[in-house]
Automatic annotation (TrEMBL):
Source organism of this protein record: Yarrowia lipolytica (Candida lipolytica)
N-acetyltransferase domain segment(s): 9-203
Protein name from the UniProt record: N-acetyltransferase domain-containing protein
Keywords per UniProt: Acyltransferase, Transferase
Pfam families: Acetyltransf_10
Molecular-function GO term, any one: aralkylamine N-acetyltransferase activity
Annotated Gene Ontology cellular component terms: cytoplasm
Highest taxon of source: Eukaryota
Amino acid sequence: MTKTLPPHSAIRPLAVQDVDAIVEVSDKAFPPDQSATREKVLYRLQACPELCLGLFIRSYDAKDKAKNSDGEDDQLPHPTTSVISEKLVAVILATKMRSDLITKGSMGIPEGPDDEENGHKEDGNTVGVHAVCVDPEYQGKSIGSILMNDYVQRISTNGVASRIALIATDENAPFYEKLGFTNQGKSDCKYPPGVVWNDLYFDLSYN
C-alpha cells in the first residue's frame, strides 16, 4: 500500500514560534514522565532548529482554491494562495552528539558555555533524535514513518552527520527497524526510572 499524507500536508523545519504547538503534541503523544519540557523544546529550537522537523496540516483562503479541468474546486490550493493557519500534527526533535549512541547528557541542557557533557554539540557527527511524536488524532495514518523517512533523507542529503541515533521501548523499536534502523539492544539510558530503552541507529555513510 502506498503511504500518502493527508491533503494540504506540509513538512518544514520547526522554529521558536512553534514551541507551544510542539509541547501540545508531545503532551498528547507521550506519558507525562516522557514528554519533553517546554524548556528543553525551546533550547533545541534555539540551538539547532535545522535538526527539528514538523508535519503540518495547512488551511488556505477558500477564495484562492484552484480549479480542475471541469471548473470545480480542486483538492490542491492555488500555487499563489496564502496559508491562513497551520495545525502541527507530528514532530521530530533532535540535537547533534559526539557519541555514537544516545546519552543522558545529549538529552539535557548545558549548564554553561563550558559544559562538555550536556546538550547540542555542533561538532558532533551523530544526530540524536530525542522525540518522534504524532498527535493521537492522526496516528495510524503512516504519518510517523513518512516523516521519519523524509528526515533521514534530509540529514543524509545535507551531510549534517554520518549517523542518526535514538532510543525506543521494546514496543516501539520494531517501527524504527522497519525504517532501516539497527537495534543494538538495551540502552544505558535509564530515564525516566523504570523505563527500559533500546539503542537504535542508522548509518548514513553506508547509503
